[in-house]
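Please decode residue identities from the backbone states below.
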């Protein structure tokens, strides 16, 4: 199954997928695995997942959700929900850290927010929530 098979009538989700894939490509090689319920971005393990809440919830708040496997708690207000990891790693992060930085940290297995994505990087968030 290809990502496009999961997103045929979901223009926002397709745009988010394109943006995430493009930005992750700047960080090095990764693998994309698609199932009937999600698109997984992987290196040695899955580090980010796109899924469509409308497949499971009758009143979904969003067309697409980006889940990031950080392996630790992050207090950012930009997360709607934070699931507590099984193993805690002592680390604090800036509340202004953007999703691409989180994915870079997760994909590299890093708990350190510094130097994973330069502020000048084209995919670095500059306080805008628009994905396209």
């Amino acid at each position: 199954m290809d990502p496009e098979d999961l997103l045929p009538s979901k223009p926002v989700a397709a745009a988010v997928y394109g943006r995430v894939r493009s930005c992750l490509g700047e960080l090095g090689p990764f693998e994309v695995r698609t199932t009937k319920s999600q698109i997984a971005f992987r290196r040695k393990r899955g580090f980010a997942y796109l899924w469509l809440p409308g497949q499971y919830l009758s009143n979904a708040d969003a067309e697409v959700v980006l889940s990031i496997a950080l392996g630790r708690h992050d207090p950012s207000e930009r997360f709607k929900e934070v699931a507590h990891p099984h193993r805690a790693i002592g680390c604090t992060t800036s509340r202004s850290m953007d999703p691409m930085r989180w994915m870079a940290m997760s994909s590299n297995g890093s708990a350190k927010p510094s130097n994973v994505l330069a502020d000048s990087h084209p995919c670095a968030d500059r306080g805008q929530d628009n994905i396209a």
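Observation: The helical segments are 3-6, 11-25, 99-108.
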